[in-house]
Design a protein that fits this description.
Elements: H1 4-13, H2 21-62, E1 66-70, H3 78-86, E2 91-106, E3 109-117, H4 120-125, H5 127-130, E4 133-136, E5 146-150, H6 151-157, E6 164-168, E7 173-175, E8 178-180, E9 183-192, H7 197-200, E10 203-206, H8 208-214, E11 223-228, H9 235-244, E12 249-253, H10 254-297, H11 299-307, H12 312-343, H13 345-356, H14 363-366, H15 377-403, H16 407-411
Helix pairs in contact: 1-12, 2-10, 2-12, 2-15, 10-12, 10-15, 12-15
């Protein structure tokens, strides 16, 4: 498609002489602009993907995909119902859970917390907790006074494994003196850190029987959490579970519970993509302006090439090669920079925090303890394709103008 002669002339135009230094500066900025735009877009998309995936893994790792409970927010005869749910196609795990809010205290420190009561086997089956223990062991997670506490909550209260933590129930008990707060001391047998600030700073796990006693639930639970094979496709699973459970029970899935949160993440991701695409578009306009100036500067050279036999198509292809080479080089440079930056973004964040002394990633604000990044090959291909496409489109008009130059007019005053 392109002859060796066209490549040679285009290469000479990409190495301008000293008097054409301004044009070379524009070309350099066009290349850098394209590279920075592509790299920034790759990094931001990777961080947004990582943020969503990490949040989803932690939310679904600690919470059921679908919760089965009655209208009043509980479940009776939960063992029989759990056995029935386990036989439903596509169900991976079924866990009866007691959940409630408490005030956690130790010495003069206090903090709000969420207590989740479940059996020791069910807790050990949740790898996001069992594999993230900071201290202690789940072997001791049994009896009426054992609890596992989030590491940040333990640090906030100044507690370690083996120390007692006092929990105050939201509903007190009646006495001759009026309502008296119900409180009880528990022994910390393990601390965990799942990497999500909300859970590490507020979650307390307790054996199911102990939680039923503490919250006075008798023989009922707050709900039955169901894990399914594909949490992103809940329609079929919900239908099968709905047919299996008796009347009077309702199903509540994770998408309903967190819909506003993940919708906001998706909107933010789309907006960031559009905004950062403008960087590549600006770089493409720089390619346009640089090529137009090159065409005007090389008007006499183009006329001489035409008189020597070069066709309009050959002239157009020469400038297509010149402009597209800038865009392709910038896009490939941006691809390399973006992938390297995204792969090492948390290390770079830690290095910058050590260098500046400022906290660049506040876990209590951004939910996660680490800065995540997940590179999606499809998205990277789309970004690279967009960079190459815009670079090619930016060269069409200047190349067309170069091919329309009249040799007679260009050489009239030479």
């Amino acid at each position: 498609m392109f002859s060796a002669f066209e490549w040679m002339v285009a290469a000479r135009y990409l190495r301008p002489r000293r008097q054409e230094g301004f044009i070379s500066v524009i070309a350099a900025f066009s290349l850098l602009g394209t590279a920075l735009g592509v790299a920034t877009l790759i990094v931001v998309m990777a961080v947004m993907n990582g943020f969503r995936v990490e949040l989803l893994d932690r939310i679904l790792g600690l919470n059921g995909h679908i919760v089965v409970q009655d209208i009043e927010g509980g479940a009776r005869n939960y063992d029989a119902l759990a056995d029935k749910l386990r036989r439903v196609e596509g169900v991976v795990a079924v866990t009866p859970v007691v959940e409630g809010q408490v005030m956690a205290m130790a010495k003069s420190n206090a903090s709000g917390a969420v207590v989740r009561g479940l059996r020791a086997g069910d807790l050990r089956a949740r790898g996001i907790v069992a594999n993230k223990l900071v201290a202690g062991s789940l072997k001791d997670f049994k009896g009426p006074d054992a609890v596992a506490v989030g590491s940040r909550l333990a640090r906030k209260l100044g507690l370690t494994v083996g120390r007692p933590i006092t929990l105050v129930a939201p509903k007190g008990r009646a006495s001759p003196m009026g309502m008296v707060p119900r409180m009880r001391a528990y022994r910390i047998v393990a601390t965990f850190e799942v990497g999500m600030y909300e859970y590490d700073s507020s979650f307390i796990f307790m054996p199911l029987k102990a939680a039923q006693v503490f919250f006075r639930r008798g023989s009922t639970v707050s709900g039955i959490e169901v894990m399914v094979e594909d949490p992103d496709d809940l329609a079929a699973a919900r239908q099968r579970l709905f047919e299996a459970v008796p009347g009077g029970l309702r199903l509540y899935d994770w998408q309903q519970a967190n819909s506003h949160f993940f919708t906001a993440l998706q909107v933010e991701r789309n907006v960031m993509f559009l905004i950062l695409t403008l960087i590549i578009i600006v770089a493409a306009f720089n390619i346009v302006s640089g090529l137009i100036m090159l065409v005007k500067d090389k008007g006499s050279d183009i006329a001489i090439l035409r008189t020597m036999g070069a066709t309009r198509g050959a002239v157009m292809r020469i400038f297509l090669i010149s402009g597209t080479s800038i865009g392709v080089s910038g896009t490939l440079l941006g691809l390399v920079l973006g992938v390297l930056f995204a792969d090492n973004i948390d290390f770079i964040r830690i290095w910058l925090e050590g260098l500046t002394g400022a906290e660049l990633w506040a876990a209590e604000i951004r939910f996660l303890s680490n800065l995540p990044a997940r590179i999606d090959a499809t998205e990277v291909s789309a970004v690279v394709g967009m960079g190459l496409g815009l670079s090619f489109l930016a060269t069409l008009y200047p190349s067309w103008r170069a091919s329309r130059i009249d040799p007679v007019e260009a050489l009239r005053y030479e």
